[in-house]
């Protein structure tokens, strides 16, 4: 009987933890939009459609910006020669191309 009670308690704990994680994740989605303005501004990126240059992949167009936290974002870029890449903005070495 003791083993059955322990299994029931573990199942109850697992359910409680699952509900907590679901509530936390839902609140995060509501409070931190995917285009978190602060992190994108800190990285010098402004909008989807903006042209950027990467040291290895060359020139590309930003197709999506998704915040990771307050200080970083995942940047999806369609490069002319290398296709779609998903890069961590703070580590990507992106620059805005110089205007002629």
CATH class of the largest domain: Mainly Beta
Helix content: 40-55%
Question: What number of structural domains do the residues give?
Answer: 2
Order of helices and strands: HHEEEEH
Biggest sheet overview:
4 strands, antiparallel
Q: Assign the structural class, choosing from mainly alpha, mainly beta, alpha/beta, alpha+beta, or little secondary structure.
A: alpha+beta
Query: Taking strands numbered 1, 2, ... along the chain, how are they ordered across the largest sheet?
Result: 1-2-3-4
Described by its quaternary structure, the protein is: single chain
CATH topology of the largest domain: Thrombin, subunit H
Rg, alpha carbons: 21 Å
Number of distinct beta strands: 4
Output mean pLDDT: 80
What is the end-to-end distance? 80 Å
**CATH architect. name of the largest domain:** Beta Barrel
Q: How much of the sequence is in beta strands?
A: 25-35%
Shape: elongated
So how many helices? Answer: 3
Short description:
By secondary structure, this protein is an alpha+beta fold. The chain folds into two domains: 1-31; 34-100, Thrombin, subunit H (Beta Barrel), CATH 2.40.10. Helices cover 40% and strands 30% of the residues.
């Amino acid at each position: 009987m003791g083993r059955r009670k322990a299994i029931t308690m573990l199942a109850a704990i697992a359910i409680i933890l699952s509900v907590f994680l679901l509530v936390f994740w839902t609140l995060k989605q509501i409070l931190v939009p995917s285009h978190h303005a602060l992190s994108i501004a800190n990285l010098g990126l402004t909008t989807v459609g903006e042209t950027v240059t990467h040291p290895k992949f060359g020139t590309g167009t930003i197709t999506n910006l998704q915040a990771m936290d307050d200080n970083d974002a995942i940047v999806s870029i369609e490069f002319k020669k290398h296709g779609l890449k998903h890069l961590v903005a703070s580590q990507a070495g992106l620059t805005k191309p110089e205007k002629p």
